[in-house]
Every structure is written in C-alpha cells, then in structure tokens.
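Example record

One chain of 261 residues, shown exactly as stored in the release files.
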Amino acid sequence: MADQALQEETTLEVSGVRVYCQRRGQGPPLLLLHAEDAASQWRPFHALLARQFEVILPDHPGFGRSEALPWLRGMPDLVYWYLDFLDQLGLERVHVVGESFGGWLAATLAVVYSHRLERLVLIGPAGVKPRGVSVPDLFAMSPAEWAATTLHAPERVAAGSAERPDRATLERQLRDKATLARLAWNPYLHDPQLPHWLHRVRVPTLLIWGRYDRLLPPALADHWLRRLPDARLVTIEAGHFPQIERPDVVAATVSDFLQGE
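Predicted structure tokens for this chain:
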C-alpha cells in the first residue's frame, strides 16, 4: 500500500458484469458487503473504518449503480461472483464485514471459503430464521415504516420518515428491492440450510446486534453463537442498523476486533 490513503470510485467488469466500487483508506484490505438499502452509499461508519483499513465497498450486482446478473438465482451465485471479484482485484485474503443482507452473504462466503478470510464481522445478519421467529415484511413497508423498524433513536426515525427521494433514487430503490426479492423472497430473508453449515466458518467472528432491532430480533444472535465455532457478540444501544446510529462505537468495536484486540 502506498503511503497516501486510496480514494477511488470506479466501475469494474467482473464475470461480464459492470459493477460500481468504492475503495478508500489505507491498511489491510477490508471487503464491506452492504445492507439491502445501502448500495452506492459511503456512510460515516465506512469513513471511520477507512482510517485503519482499505475499505472495498462494491455495489452488489443488481443493486445501486451495478449491472444485474441475468442468471442470478440465489446466494451461491452471488458468492461465486464475489470470488471472481476478489480474484480480479488480486486479493487472496481479506477481512469481511457484512451488514444485514450483506451479513448473510458474508456468512455464506465464509462457510465455503474461510481460507480467503482473515476475520469476519456480521452486523445484524439475515440468513438464519428459526421456527417461531417472526420477521416483518420489508417488501411491504413504506419509507416511514422502514425507518421505524430499522432505527431506534427518535430523531433518526423522524429523519428517515421525512426523506423524499427523487425519481432516479426511487427507481434505483425499486430495482434494488427487485434484486433482493430474487435472492431473499422465498424462503424469506434466510436459507434453511445455512445453520447446518455454520460450523465450517473457521475464522474468528464478531456478531454485532442492535438491542432494539425490530427487523431481525436480537434473540437471533443466540442461534448464530451456538453454531459458529469461534464467535462473540457485542450488543449496541441501537436498532437494526447500529452502524448508522452509533457509527463511532461500531467502527471502534470492529477495528479493535479486526486488529486482534
């Protein structure tokens, strides 16, 4: 890595698909797999991580500014695509941080290809849904309902409810939901087989959960902890997106873990 921190926004062609990717910061490479609503965004949490890591933040195929994979049918397709992505960037081993839907993707990647990961962080991950656990239908939510479900602090909920996206942003959001539906509609937001294979995640893993998560209940963390061989949990005073509500706390927690502290 050069002495000067990397600041780059680029479009790459990987496996015949053009994808938008942000690369910023300096230090060990960190692949950040964004949440279902966060394509093309560079948030304060990401900027804080970029002080100590080279953060690599692509838009998943079919999300944000990236082209769609016409043959994308399930999470395994996305995992294999990300292996091509890492190969194209010449990254043999990376830290991986996954947020919500991106956490599900990160966990699936780690099940099969732990040897490509240094350490793993899952922030409120989807992917595991035991019987009896109810998860609200995000596809039916209005923006105000989404804010109230995923955020906890009243000022955050009010700000999220007041957002009025322009036409281009709204069209992009609808496209993101269409891609998400292809991957996570049936079964809804989980893979029934994933819990059976989490024992194959052979890297140190940090789970971060918002104490007041109304989308994926904090009780789900226990199901992850029972199956991951080397994992610990940190609970944050926030909703489903603690990295939005408490970016400084979450970034410090992640940085300490990735540096072995």
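Notes: The mean pLDDT is 94.
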